[in-house]
Amino acid sequence: MASNYIIRRAVHSDVNCLIGLLEILFSIESDFTVEEFKQRSGLEMMLNDDTRRCIMVAEINQQVVGMCTAQILVSTAEGGFVAVIEDLVVHKEYRGKGIGRGLLLSIESWAIAKGVKRLQLLADRNNTVALEFYKSLSWKSTQLICLHKK
Predict the structure, then answer these.
(1) Tens digit of pLDDT for each residue in 28-62?
(2) By percentage, how much of the chain surpasses pLDDT 90?
(3) DSSP secondary structure string, the chain?
(4) Which end of the chain, N or C, is surrounded by fewer C-beta atoms within 10 Å?
(5) Residue 140: how many CB atoms within 10 A of its CB?
(6) Residue 63 in contact with residue 11, Cβ under 8 Å?
(7) pLDDT-derived band of residue 3, with 50, 70 and 90 as boundaries?
């Protein structure tokens, strides 16, 4: 496990680095494309509402090497708040060092402090490495599938 990284809340000056991380993530996920203007806009919206949205970053030597994002929604099934984790990515050269786990745990801690009753995330069905990673951290698959419409 890497011990020389810190995890902190993202700030506006991190946006360019975060866009670079999203490019890495979107190169894995076939449902998304890199459109810098859209990613910048979404990241700024998240950073502008730190009560219901959170971006955590991992930093080594003042360089952002990973990120994890979450947003709070209301669930009728849970009768309360749930958090959706949308983006979890670590630079390739820093994977396997515990950084992804640390980011995910930091988002979980944020969500618990906000009173969230359930965490949920989407993962590309073909990203077996990510699916095994989530399974190793006790995440469970559901019978639900994701649909979207633009």
Answers:
(1) 777 788 889 999 999 999 999 989 999 999 999 99
(2) 76
(3) ---S-EEEE--GGGHHHHHHHHHHHHHH-TT----HHHHHHHHHHHHT-TTTEEEEEEEETTEEEEEEEEEEEEETTTTEEEEEEEEEEE-GGGTTSSHHHHHHHHHHHHHHHTT-SEEEE---TT-HHHHHHHHHTT----S-------
(4) C
(5) 6
(6) no
(7) low
